Amino acid sequence: MLSKSDMIGSYSFGVRLEHRLRDALGYRDGIGFELYQRSYGGVPSEKLLLELRNMVDAGARLDVIFIELCGSRNRFFETGDSDARMREILADVDDIARRHDSLVVFFDDASLVSGPRDGNRGAPASERRFMAMARAAGFAVVTLGEDLMRDALELGPFGSPPYRSHHAAPWAIDEAADMLGDHVYPLLREHLRGRTPGFQRPEVDVVRDAAAIADAFEAVPAQWSAMLPTVTDASAQATLVGDELQIFVDLATLEVDTTDTDALDDLAAAALHRFLVEDPAGARARRVHVQLAHFRRYDEYGAGVRDAAEIVRAHRLDRAELLDFLAAVRRRH
Question: What CA–CA distances, in Å, run from 29 to 23, 45, 189, 191, 268?
Fold first, then answer.
């Protein structure tokens, strides 16, 4: 299960959901069930799907994939909510799911959020459009709003939790996890009955795209780690949008002469090395857009807000252009 709100991760929503489904599938159908949960704070769809693909590329063979939409904060479509962008997201999810014939369940938790103490909100219009498109494409989509409204009349924790801000009460999380489990149990039973578990299935060979840029540093051999400055996750962000890897480097966290274009290009090459060689983020990218910037604002998680950035230097490169760029960097050293 991939979730993007700390509410889901903080109060063991995943543990409760696992218990509910494990008991239902185990006692009724003789099927074992284990849930692996990853939470990422307030991230857009690109980050969530990148982490999911990295997990699958690293060898995870998933039978079921839960994806939280987190519509209440409207972050899932941070880079755009056009129909075309939504189709790209669904195509990416479908591509990941086909690797091991995984069942995908989108669940909308807009009704869970209680801050400022006004739970049971409706999903934003963009998310309702996305859910309609997902259903039309054959994905399972679960919303809990109507049932939660009914139960909130009795339980009461969603509208007035004993916590400030957006956190719901632990018993509210338990109730919502049980409700989600009851909604998806028939889908999981149908999908898992008679199925060979993913961990017993053979590895899937992935054919590398000839236009992919993942092996660019291999094609231009050099002692890159020793040659380039160090770029870490604290100073750079990477997002895969379609087949373009977008990299932002925060110059405020690094010592560099911003008037020296060679130094800036070395820094850009270091960021490329970080996300193409040391991290699987760029494995599927066919183009890269690296931007070196000063950020004027940061979000609550310390990441630079991109629409509040002053771009100092940028490169948008396909495979051939990237090879030329790396060759020029190597010649300078």
Answer: 10, 34, 7, 12, 54
**Which of 134, 109, 1 has the alpha carbon at shortest distance from 55?**
1
User: Would you call 62 helix, strand, or coil by DSSP?
Assistant: coil
Q: H-type helices in the chain, by residue range?
A: 6-10, 13-29, 45-57, 83-98, 125-136, 145-155, 170-192, 216-219, 224-227, 261-276, 319-332
Average pLDDT over the chain, rounded to whole? 80
Closest CA to 76 of 149, 3, 6: 3
Query: For residue 290, what are the CA distances in angstroms to 38, 225, 240?
Result: 27, 18, 12
* Collapsed DSSP state (helix, strand, coil) of residue 116: coil
Contacts by 161-164, CB closer than 8 A, 24 or more apart:
161/114, 161/117, 161/119, 164/115
**pLDDT score of 59:** 83
Nearest-angstrom CA–CA distance, 193 and 190: 6
Q: Are 255 and 217 in contact (CB under 8 A)?
A: no
Structure tokens, 115: 């801050």
pLDDT top residue among 190 and 241: 190
| pLDDT at position 161 | 47
CB 91 within 8 A of CB 104: no
Cβ(193)–Cβ(31) under 8 Å?
Answer: yes
Distance between CA atoms of residues 30 and 180, nearest Å: 20
